[in-house]
Design a protein that fits this description.
single chain; mainly alpha; 7 helices
Length: about 130
Amino acid sequence: MSALALLLTAKILLSLPLIATFGFANNSRLNNLTGQWGQDPLIYRLYAVALAALVVGYLAALFVALDLQIPWGMMWVGLVSNAGAFVMIMTWSLNPRVRRAAWPFGAIAAGLALALLFPDQAAAPLLG
């Protein structure tokens, strides 16, 4: 397994609980988690669908990475998505808990940026 495959696996596994939470938790729980005060959970449900779509892309990219190749398109999508989430949360959220929760997005974005800069090393097997 390559470092890139490991990173994609981590991203997929971190996304699944978010999809479940934003897709199925009740509105008051979601408002408490995010520090928002909306009456309608629709925006949370749409976020869960967007995350699910990204996970489909990450899964496809994982299969490419497991063949020790570079899934260029999905790496760029992931960089924009994760860096964008990190920057938006850190810029606009005043909730310390939400700001702490943004750091995994920043770490994934940093890993993807490194993989884009050093693709041969990212695709190389970690052992062997």
